[in-house]
Write a structure and sequence with these properties.
This protein is mainly beta. Strand 4 and strand 5 form a beta hairpin. The protein has one domain: Viral coat protein p3 (Adenovirus Type 2 Hexon, domain 4, Distorted Sandwich), CATH 2.70.9. 7% of the residues lie in helices and 32% in strands.
Amino acid sequence: MTAMAPEQTAGISAGRPQPQTTVEAPGGPFIRHTQEGRRLMYGLTGQAYGGVINQPMVASPGYNRGYRILIGSTPGTYTTGAFTASSAPAADFPPGVVNLIQCRDAYGTVLFTGPGYEILGLVPILSGQFGMLDGNELQQNLPSFQNGITTTAFGWIWATALPFEFAKAMGVISGANASLLPTLQVNFNTLASIFGTISVASTLTFQVESDFYWLPQGVVVVPPGIGTTCQWIYQPCSPPVSANSATLVQAPRLGGYLTTLIADARDVNNLRQNIWPAPAAATGGSAGLPGGRLRLYVDGVPLQDTDITTLIDDIDIQTGVGQPGVQGSTAVAGGAGARLINAASTAGAAGSFSMQGVMAWSRKTGLAQRTTGLLETGEAFLSTNPGTQIEFAGQPWNPAPGGTGPYTVAVVAGQVVPSGVLIQGLPEV
């Protein structure tokens, strides 16, 4: 005679665990009562270079932490030898495949807007909101990165993110109401603008997943500072800059609490160039010391007056970008210790990520000398309002930046806009 299962367990062992089995006792922070989840928003194949995606999002049962994005090129082939120096990837590749990306919340508030290079490339790397330590700040070091561009084949994958969450459970967007969802529009660059004269039968794949917090079970609790957002908006500065000048460049009026300020410089052909003051360099057996100086003014007061060489070291200490041994193929020629900030990629490395012309300042260092990702108190955020004036001054700007002048500087700033008073400290614990 076959033994019968106890009544209280019958029908359960082969079924799915029920959510209520993980319910916590009432009390404590939001993250104690929620679980981190992920779901697909959409996945599209056969998208044309130069096309536009404006696909509606779907609901997720909780609060969206950010969107994980996977961009890739369907494999294509071309004649052997057709891939030459003139058709090597553009300097902004891979994220520069996106010409413009815009993300808004359900009420039309802009959360992200700007070119793909800045929003999908620099923001995840330098914000501390995606990847941390061990070199995984650089998306090219993630296992997902694939570079299948050779002399006879064409195919690549680049994973990135639009991170809403700027500190643990803070900055999240409601996703449970299907009638009140964020919107995302993506404009792609043409194949010719990325690969020059190359002609290849290839299309794009674009996938968006949402990382989210499940709605808590059995207790009424919401994320801290719900309604607070961290907004990343790309804006050009003025006036243009000439090489070897001391021009004072004004950033657009900002506002909110600044977590990170990222700036890059481009020439009249929209190519990034090292217009920033030249760092110290060993040339002809004698060191070119000191390096040029860069001043960062806030309301006319020089918040930083620094040798550019020291500032580049600061960025590495704060963000981990440029650590020897974790850069992959992104280091400039010179081997261990070769810098990444304000330097070009290894020549001819198809798909390598260049940060030439880039400079950054992090205010997410309240807990340590470096950004600790989502472990952030907000104590060191820079409080600004629409009247705050931020300016840069090269002492002097690089005498030989390359490219064709005059040059322009643009900024993309992480601006925390609180729904009330900014929550500081660690409310999650």
